[in-house]
Specification:
Layout lengths: L1 H11 L4 H32 L3 H6 L12 H7 L2 H33 L6 H13 L4 H10 L7 H4 L6 H14 L2 H9 L4 H9 L4 H17 L2 H6 L8 H9 L14 H6 L1 H38 L4
Length: 308
């Protein structure tokens, strides 16, 4: 009866006029912000499915005009698209695996209060967030290590993210009690066994956050490839995307399978169409993966960001 009374009392609480006005303006502002963020994506998708003439004349606003797959046909038939895709998948999968393993191996010891010198180690790691050697010393280091123009140049320089170590360490301090370690030690478990069998299963949220952060970073990375890679067979997809979008360098082979009349009708419009299509092709994997890790992403970031 008391619970029913409390429930009825909560239901009887009404929002004041000021609260209703605030809520209305808050929803309107969020809706406006959503439109600002969403419209460019909708426009790119619509333009990628429109005809060259519609893109060139500027008739595309919200929906595709004169439905056409010419842009996608040009991108899919372009061999370098698949080379870039394969390289990006390798860099993303292998790089994310290295990142997550090193992050866990660094964050867990730093979360242990019995680790000697952990404060000094955290200071050194945090110091690198504010100060670093710079571009030229990094380039010389990659050259001296002998990994220039190899896949390792895309993986080793970004093998560990200090910010990810900090939020992961804080998560372990909050969600992995020291009593669990004491119980595991009594049962004869080693530190590595404890991390594998206890820490990792209890840390699905923060692991998902790390996977998302690192994977998106690798997928969108092009600057290290621009500096350290010269062989086009090692180029990631984003470097080909940069050549198309920024340098306006569209290989003639990309238009090879298209009708000559179509190319002559509007080469500039076809170039824009290819740009829109390749943006969608490069963005689809991340857009497909994000909904599956979103629930872990919010939880992990909020907990991992607490001061510990």
């Amino acid at each position: 009866m008391m619970a029913d009374a409390q429930l009825g009392e909560r239901r009887s609480i009404r929002m004041s006029r000021g609260d209703r006005v605030y809520s209305l303006f808050n929803h309107l502002f969020l809706a406006f912000a959503l439109l600002i963020v969403l419209y460019p994506l909708v426009y790119i998708i619509s333009s990628s499915f429109s005809s060259v003439k519609a893109v060139l004349s500027g008739h595309v606003w919200l929906w595709p005009v004169d439905l056409s797959l010419d842009g996608y046909r040009a991108v899919i038939n372009y061999s370098k698209t698949w080379i870039g895709y394969a390289n990006t998948l390798v860099y993303t999968v292998v790089g994310t695996g290295i990142n997550v393993v090193l992050t866990i191996l660094a964050a867990y010891p730093l979360s242990r209060r019995d680790m000697a010198g952990r404060g000094f180690i955290m200071f050194l790691m945090t110091f690198t967030l504010l100060f670093h050697g710079g571009l030229i010393p990094t380039y010389v280091l990659i050259q001296k290590l002998g990994i220039m123009n190899t896949r390792w140049a895309m993986l080793l320089p970004t093998a560990l993210g200090v910010w990810n170590v900090i939020i992961t360490r804080t998560y372990y301090q909050s969600y992995v009690p020291s009593e669990l370690l004491e119980a595991a030690k009594i049962d004869g478990a080693s530190d590595f066994s404890f991390v594998w069998r206890v820490v990792i299963p209890l840390s699905g949220a923060i692991t998902a956050v790390n996977v998302l952060f690192y994977a998106v970073g690798h997928w969108n990375s092009y600057f290290p490839a621009l500096l350290y890679l010269h062989d086009q067979n090692l180029f990631p997809l984003q470097l080909f995307l940069r050549q198309v979008l920024i340098i306006n360098d569209i290989d003639a082979d990309m238009m090879h399978d298209l009708d000559t009349a179509l190319i002559d009708e509007g080469r500039l419009g076809l170039m824009e169409l290819i740009k829109f299509a390749i943006i969608i092709v490069a963005s689809v994997p991340v857009l497909c993966i994000y909904p599956f890790v979103q629930k872990h992403f919010i939880k992990g970031v909020m907990i991992g960001s607490l001061k510990g």
